[in-house]
Fold this sequence. Notes:
By secondary structure, chain A is of the alpha+beta class. Chain A has helices spanning about 25-30, 80-95, 110-115, 155-160, 195-200, 220-225; strands spanning about 5-10, 15, 55, 60, 75, 140-145, 165-170, 175-180, 205-210. Chain B is α/β, with parallel strands linked by helices. Chain B has a 6-stranded mixed beta sheet with strand order 5-11-10-14-12-13.
Amino acid sequence: MSEVEQVFSLDGEDLPFQAGDTVLQAATRVGRYIPHLCWHPDFAPHGSCRICTVKVNGRMAAACTVQAAPGLDVESRTDELNALRKTLLQMLFVEGNHFCPSCEKSGNCLLQATAYEVGMEGPHFEEFYPDRPVDASHPDLLLDFNRCILCELCVRASRDVDGKNVFAIGGHGIGTRLLVNSPSGRLADTAMALGDRAAGVCPVGVILPKRRGFAVPIGERRFDGAPVSGQVEGTP
Amino acid sequence: MPMAQGDAGVSASALEALLQRHGRDPHALLQLLRELQAEHGWLPRATLAQVAAALGLTPAQVEGVAGFYRFLHTQPVGRYRILFSDNITDRMLGSEALMADLCRRLGVAPGRVSDDGRVSVARTSCTGLCDQGPALLINHHAVVTRLDAARVAQLAGLVRGGVPVAQWPAEWFEVQDQVRRADVLLAEPPAPGAALSAALARGIPGMLSEMKLSNLRGRGGAGFATGLKWSLCRQAQGSEHVVVCNADEGEPGTFKDRVLLTRHADAVLEGMTIAAWLIGARRGFVYLRGEYRYLLERLEAVLQRRRDAGLLGTAILGRAGFDFDVRIHVGAGAYVCGEESSLIESLEGRRGTPRIRPPFPVQSGYLGQPTIVNNVETFCAAVHIALQGGAWWASIGTPKSAGTKIHSVSGDCERPGLYEYPFGTRIGRILEDCGARDTQAVQVGGPSGLCLSAFEFGRRIAFEDVPTAGAFMVFDRSRDMFEVARCFAHFFAHESCGFCTPCRVGTALVVKRMDKLAAGHGSRHDIDVLFELDKLMHGATHCGLGATACNPLRDTIAKFRPAYERHLKSLYFEPGFDLDAELSIARHLTGRDDPGAHLERLS
Lengths: 236, 603
């Protein structure tokens, strides 16, 4: 006995989904790419970066938070939405200090890869150049807040997987920032360890292992071989 | 040390007393921090850690909450903490010059603490006293209205002399209701308990059907059908149901809820009690904005009076099983908490970040339980519907917008204050009644509402034409509508919660462009970029704050474009990078300031 397959439309093509799927989960399951930064398949949706903004029955919504439903008409790969994503990415770039050529994450960075994907060629807006000192206190890990995009994946991973609550969010508005949970506010005084899930989940170059620079040369890194849109593996 | 208090934290006994009062409930975190700060002046890191340990939270979680609310301070502030209300209406009444004068008299720079730690002076978002401004807020508690040069001079003397605020002239703290036109809601209120008895007599299905029949829509701005919301919540499964009154009246230019809470608190609480009975709630909250802290004792007294009269508490009106009580939760300066899911997060003691919706609060609200969140005015309306029936309410106003609406009128008019009209009233009628002359524009519904120009004054207040949450700010022809929009742009950037990219960065980018135009460095390209940002933020933000943040910008560019173009320096392209300003260091080093040391001026 086979269940009736539930489908919605993504850019004009039928896309099957399972009960409880969001639009982004369903798309990823079958290897379809919708640009995203703060979403990760292992964590609950967050909805903060808005890069996965799609049009659902003509209304804009974040694909990571919209529940899939039969008959939804979802547009993602349109000029309008790609232009919007490009602007959002430019906002993230000017908000922080992102100097790709000197960043150890270059080539493995989801922010950089997504910017290439949508054809971002420059910052467009004036840079904010915020003052965000790095935290090099931990013996094995470096925190470079200059690159933080506030996706909260480290907050979620440390809380939900590692059970350590090493990170939290502080401030408000343009002053919103990542906090380290220790009396001194420094990473060295937390229980954070190199093998933690939170240490490996950062999509950009904030949380980096020390003493492991450029082990894989530029040109051979994850997004050097194929664009991010070509790397959605899907799950059968 | 700028403060008399050190940063070693509060005494263990003081903290213990507060913790006991709040039952060591981590959901009371915001209330606890507010009360700690009221005693201690600010919140040192050591205090936050103590609170975290006592509540079973992490220090960073507590720091994150303290850093979210504008009225909580994790750095020392003055023993006199003076905040000037910074709505455009305050500015139009001269608040900026008054603040500069006070700062000069006290020898303190805006946003800083004086060297002796005595005083700090800064700006805050609209404090809801636009009809009697310019206004300021002292130590997040007392308000001074109707500021003028004489008051500022005297105030500076009192601060310098260290005179406690309680000994300042009583008339400074006078807050007037200024009800100019009363209809149903602002008229003489019904006797406490009368509407509740009427509702009980109608029975639950009967009263719910009256609510639906009334076509009452929420008065907080979104306009959701109240009867439907209450029915959905009643049907939703949960271990308890919760009633929340949204008194976080943060929309600049809105002050009707302040007056309703002052004059008609019984009606507000009675509306909540009726709602509690209909949805089966035992617990209710009034989320009172921090700016209205001075109303707290009065409201607590009304609550106690109602308990004593059997209108709150157990077995209300003698009916076994009808138990309901209300607690007042005081906010701490965060406009976004007017959004219902942020408000619930804040009630739970967290950062006021909007939740992902659905689920909506009627299904999963306070502590995950079915919750209704309604505006102060909505609960007042429910009282009258209980008394006079849904058909009567529906007969007032227009077919799509039933009943009356209270408008908070301020700005360029002779008689600012509250005006209540049936829906369908012309904008021009309100302008005539309030004595507005030579009016250039009206901002209806606050910065997130609509800016109307003279050719639109024939339009009507209604959900189907000009919807409003209650603000009505009038601008005559002497006003620069670009400056109005710039003031609102700063407001939204200041109040963005920082959660989503388009609002966090977009509101800051809008401010940069507007300030650049104001400084005379703008080009037509900047206006195009503003259009682009408006379009982006309308669709891509996580909540309504970001979505509406560019409304004043869009309206004023479309309707008052010359106001923007006056700020363009010339028809030459003016780059964002000011080369001449960059040469100022070289001029300083060489001691030159002659024309030859400047680049050629374009204009």
